Task: structure prediction
Amino acid sequence: MIDKALIITTFRRLFFTCLLMGFVSMICILIFFYGKGPNINEIVSLEGNWRISLDDDERFLDPNFDDSSWDSVNLPGSMIHYSLSKKGRVEGVLWLRKQFYLPSDIEKTRLGLILGRIGNADMTYVNGVMVGGMGGFPPHEFSMWNHPRNYLIHASDLRYGENNMIAIRISYNNFCEILGRLAISDYKNFKHFKTATTFSTITAGYIAIAIGQVLLIIFCIFYLVRPSSEEYYYYCLPLFFGQPIIFEICTYWNVYHNTLWRIKILSITLTGLCVTHTIFLHRIYEFERKGIEAFLKVYFIIDILFSLLVINTNNIRTYAPVIIIFSIGIFLYSLTCNIEAIIRKKPYSRFFGLFGIGFLLFVTHDCFVYLSKLSSFDVYFSAYKPGMTSNLATVLLYLGTALVLVKRLIHIMDEVEDLNASLENYIIENTILSKKLTISTEKEDEPTVFSKTDDKKISSRAQEKIVKVMHFIDENYSTEISRLKLADSFGIHPDSLGKKFKTFTGKKLGDYIYELRIKEAARRLKEEDTNIIDIAFDVGFESIRTFQRIFPKYMGQTPDQYRKQHRKN
Result:
């Protein structure tokens, strides 16, 4: 006979596996195109060789200055390696210069200068005229490394049919690169490009921060109302640690005053995010992994002390990559938690799992970007110009969270309906009881209309659900059964499942499961010679210690004593 249920289950798993692979592929493609950036109509490409000097002199902005003795560097790309090889330093001021020819047959109007993202601050000149700049130079340094540099050039500052000179003065501190598109474009295309890049890198970040603050307030209220629900607490913490990371890549304000403290805070918040998010996944998916959680908490404490007390300007490029690599490892472990939860059909995994996978892929990508900035590892490719994707990551995480909230809201609405039905039944039953008491005093000693289990105190709809839960437990008591999974499967709010179950059956949910397991274990102890430990595991207990503790509560003696007594009989 062909097992149709097995075939259906197999096809479902294959379908979901294909869906999961497609989702991951979509995320990877999105990361690639997000790094590539929007298209633009180039008049002049500025990618390629630029002249570079690690000295700082105002004469370098002069378009007629002779820079033939300077070295060359290929841009877009990193310049920190050049600084290390020439002067052994990771901070200072450098100059870049590039000559370009502007055709005489183009319309003589204002043009757009696109320079990508520059770390940390810049002052940009075209033919000796300053056209823009971002960030702050020492002693008031301020990094705006993720902000796109899109500057407008007036026609009066350009030389048509001649060579023109771009000179850029750059302040750098551990971050030193030009990444993104390098080109001169017509004004119309420049406006669209500037709007698109500003929105994707900066504006979207502030939108994510605003959404995150709202969710943080909501989950804080949930936790204050139900402090026993740890998943709310451990979701508040990732939101709390995630906000500074997003703020880091889109801020216009100099909050940290120097790059060293900026990196220290970033290290602590990144570690806090990966640790608390992982523990949150353990809570929401009911993974009992106390050892891993203890390790994560110890690692977080060590990272805080290490970042505050050990990391300094001299060793930051040695220790910071180590912290990032550890964070990548934890994020990858969290990725496996989501995949495992989806495969095992854990509660909320259908809603949260896929979005959680997307979130983790994006933040892992950003960890590699940070790693490339603080080490000799360069992730720049011709078609891929690495940008931060934390904005997309948070959006995916918030979407998954919103779906979980919607599902819980639906459960709450169902509970309200059940409560209304219960109140109506209670009023009707009390009315009938009052009438009966007034008709005959003989019925005072008779049982009331409420049954022993008080099953009429809950709505008929809730009774049907509890009956289905009981049938499920009767057939699956020997497997792993959790309150959240039952609630999710039968559309009952987790916080009220136990109350309704006890109201209907007169027993606690856990006691009902234990009773079935103990009855089956007692039968096998009487009829079989199987080892006690094997019987304990077969009927659903996770440890022999728990079995030895629970069995006497129901049978009045230990499993060994029970077997010996009934074998004698």
In short: The domain at 4-37+200-410 is CATH 1.20.1070 (Rhopdopsin 7-helix transmembrane proteins). The longest helix spans residues 390-439.
